[in-house]
Amino acid sequence: MPVLVGKKAPVFRAKAVQREAIIEDFSLEQFLGKKYVVFFFYPKDFTFVCPTELHRFQEELAEFEKRDVAVVGCSTDSEFSHWAWLNTPREKGGIEGVSYPLVADINKTISEDYDVLAGEPTIDEDGNYTVEGELVAYRGLFLIDKQGIVRHQVVNDMPLGRSIRECLRVVDALQHFEEFGEVCPMDWQKGDRAMKADHKGVSDYLGGQEG
User: Fold this and answer.
1) On the chain, which terminus has fewer CB atoms closer than 10 Å, C or N?
2) Domain that holds residue 100
3) Which family does it belong to (predicted)?
């Protein structure tokens, strides 16, 4: 799997759905120079684990907005499937109330560019195109900075839901580094002491111990 961290986020233009509207030409480029982006993939609309994640992102949307972060979801479903799911009440398995954009990657090209596409397409000796598994997205998540650079990525298998708290923690760590030039050690939380990016600073953080 290619690592996108430190590289420009792949550019795309696709249809998306936000609230009641279908957006014909959606792109993450609209956020360049303005906002960070948490761009996450999920396998399918109208499933079981996926709505728990989408609702959780919505519940924490104000926390992302406080940090100047745009949240954008994506799956290989069509814009019409997204629209129908958004118009299905939560108690019936829908995601009614989700207000951030959902990108329709029906051609699978976005998932492929971000290298989160499951399934193995092959062509047999007779020239027949077949797929082993399903061509749907794994649970990929990418934190993209205001310059369009990927600063964090994580990919979970289908059964494994993600942690919104960890996502927010990484956003906080990136923004702390950008503001203060201090690096954030393991399990760092906002408000914790960070480390200067030199030997002396590391030594000070460790209480003067070398090593």
Assistant:
1) C
2) 14-160
3) Belongs to the peroxiredoxin family. AhpC/Prx1 subfamily.
Active-site residue, from 50, 74, 167, 184: 50
Using the predicted structure, report yes or no on whether residue 1 has a pLDDT greater than 80.
Answer: no
2 domain-assigned: no
More confident residue, 104 or 197: 104
Q: Please provide the size of the chain in residues.
A: 211
Average pLDDT over the chain, rounded to an integer: 90
User: Global pTM?
Assistant: 0.89
Residue 90: CA atoms inside 13 Å, Cβ hemisphere, count? 10
HEC states along 62-105?
Answer: HHHHHCCEEEEEEECCCHHHHHHHHCCCHHHCCCCCCCCCEEEC
Is there a contact between 150 and 28 (Cβ–Cβ < 8 Å)?
no
Q: What is the count of structural domains for the chain?
A: 1
Residue 9 main-chain phi, psi, to 5 deg: -65, 135
Asked about 50 being catalytic, the answer comes back as: yes
The H or E element that residue 107 is part of is none
CATH number at residue 116: 3.40.30.10
Predicted confidence (pLDDT) at residue 20 exceeds the cutoff of 50 = yes
> Between β-strands 69-75 and 102-104, what pairing exists: parallel, antiparallel or unpaired?
parallel
